[in-house]
Design brief:
Blueprint: E1 19-26, E2 31-34, H1 36-41, H2 53-58, H3 65-78, E3 82-89, E4 95-106, E5 113-122, H4 124-131
Antiparallel strand pairs: 1-2, 1-5, 3-4, 4-5
């Protein structure tokens, strides 16, 4: 199964200004793949950094980091669908609100959870609009 960087319809974000990016984490190798928008949600341009679990967690707001770690650990153990609303600090030090959603993918033969995949949705504009 491949994740297509262009699969997200722009009309989904036109009205809200939200950025939606895709990700995939190979649990055997620890290798992350990010779409162009996922890099931008985190304040990078595609290719600026090599995404790793350490990088992902380092950009979580300190008050939210352990919660996100627990969500990812549970997803890795169970493969169940998951979601989290939390804050990140992007590469420029800007606090952003994101929704992380995803699910595990199991190896057909072993049944082992081998991959996590899903979306990052930047909801900062929505949260700011509601606060006003």
């Amino acid at each position: 199964m491949s994740v297509d960087d262009h699969a997200i319809d722009p009309s989904l974000t036109r009205e809200t200004g939200q950025k939606i990016g895709q990700y995939r984490l190979d649990l055997k190798t620890g290798t992350w793949w990010w779409s162009s928008e996922t890099y931008r949600v985190h304040g990078f341009e595609p290719g600026d950094v090599v995404p790793t679990t350490e990088l992902v967690l380092a950009h979580k707001h300190p008050d939210d980091r352990e919660h996100v770690r627990a969500v990812l650990d549970h997803a890795e153990a169970t493969g169940e669908p998951f979601s989290s609303v939390h804050r990140i600090m992007d590469a420029h030090g800007v606090e952003r609100y994101v929704v992380l959603v995803g699910q595990g993918r199991r190896d057909r033969e072993s049944g082992e959870v081998v991959e996590l995949l899903g979306y990052f949705v930047d909801i900062t504009t929505t949260v700011a609009g509601r606060a006003q």
